[in-house]
Design a protein that fits this description.
TAT_signal, 179 residues, 7 helices, mainly alpha, 3 strands
Amino acid sequence: MVTLYEAKPGLSRRELLRRGTAIGAGALLVISGSAVISPQQAWGLETTALKPETMATLIQMARDVYPHDQIPDRFYAIAVKSHDELAAKDAAHKDLIEKGIADLDQKAGDGGYAGLGWEEERVKLLTQIEDTPFFQAVRGGLVVGLYNQKEVWPLFGYEGESYSKGGYMSRGFDDIEWL
């Protein structure tokens, strides 16, 4: 299989476990070969066109653009996966995302965007780039990519469409607890 970026050797299972226990609960994502892995939440995402580091930063950016504490990172990972899929087909989109993340990392300084410890610092950077095509592409993809996942709906108290079940009037339209 030919990858569209320079692959690095992956972690062994032993090394992944060692790093996970050495870093502790503060570790969010581990980058290994062509994958982004969350050992604490037991999920992983393989990349095909974008660098795994880019995907990890996109996941953090997605969480900062649409912050929901009750939504696990795996749903944000699913939401940004479409950028990797599109980048595999469209070199211009790949360039837009890779350069956008590189610019964001450069503005953040040492440790890059994902290395900033405070959400306020990351949001401040995002407001500086909110008019760029890069930011608009990521934000626009997140609206559909995040909120169209049926597994996320119950976390918001949304039961899905109601027309086929007789409408909301006969199904407790006013029972929303989070409003």
